[in-house]
């Protein structure tokens, strides 16, 4: 290999901090975990949303949360841990009140994503996969948000922040730090990462229709087609 080695941007993706046994999981959480399991013909299919629920309660994938999921589903803790450590959307360490993600894949990188990540990291004083000492922010390097028409893209608690610039990123963090109202570009008003995790678990907060769901760039093709009277050919027998 002559000194060359693979560089991973997710060095801790395979570990859960088993030494931190603190938890907020209670009887209500267990009842909600069972509720999620009951929604599926095969209870084990509920594991992903159940892990999101654990994060909404404990702010991370906790050892107690792993054991709780295993108990409800009748599987081993090792099986739960294997799933929890496979996906980067599940945090191995406590996340911040606001989880900021910066996309640095291809197009976003070309449009300034790498510079944005460096700027946000410097402003928060943390590296990706870390959380600020006050628990206000955590940071993640994201690999494609499927929003290339709005590059470069950032996310706050999984809500889109489109067409970002260094000035916009600076103002965004200042507003979040001051607990000012922040609205996503195509989505709801920002609440908290834990609240977003609860929604991902399958407990709607009633804000699904808040804010626009599509932007001008995504609708450009339809607008041109409408303007020119274009339509897809009607199906028929060949």
Topology at a glance:
Layout: H1 27-37, H2 47-58, H3 63-73, H4 77-84, E1 98-103, H5 106-110, H6 113-124, E2 137-142, E3 154-156, E4 159-161, H7 166-177, H8 193-201, H9 216-228
Parallel strand pairs: 1-2
Antiparallel strand pairs: 1-3, 3-4
Helix pairs in contact: 1-2, 1-3, 2-3, 2-8, 3-4, 6-7
Keywords:
238 residues; alpha+beta; Arc Repressor Mutant, subunit A; Glutaredoxin; 2 domains; 4-stranded mixed sheet; 9 helices; 39% helix; globular
Polypeptide structure, described:
The structure is a single chain. The chain is an alpha+beta fold. The protein is 39% helix and 8% strand. It has a four-stranded mixed sheet with strand order 2-1-3-4, covered by helices on one side. Helix 1 packs across helix 3, helix 2 (47-58) runs antiparallel to helix 8 and helix 3 (63-73) crosses helix 4. It starts with 26 loop residues before the first helix and ends in a 10-residue tail after the last helix. The mean pLDDT is 91.
Question: Can you summarize this structure?
Answer:
This protein is α+β, with helices and mostly antiparallel strands and 238 residues long.
Oligomeric organization of the protein chains? single chain
Number of domains: 2
**Tally of alpha and pi helices:** 9
The gyration radius over C-alpha positions equals 20 Å
Helix content: 25-40%
Order of helices and strands: HHHHEHHEEEHHH
Task: Supply the helix-strand structural class.
Answer: alpha+beta
End-to-end separation? 58 Å
The side-by-side strand order for the widest beta sheet comes to: 2-1-3-4
Content of β-strand: 5-15%
Low-confidence stretches: none
CATH class of the largest domain: Alpha Beta
CATH architecture verdict of the largest domain = 3-Layer(aba) Sandwich
The CATH topology of the largest domain comes to: Glutaredoxin
Biggest pleated sheet? 4 strands, mixed
Principal-axes geometry comes out as globular
Residue-averaged pLDDT: 91
Strand runs, count? 4
The fourth-level CATH homologous superfamily of the largest domain is Glutaredoxin
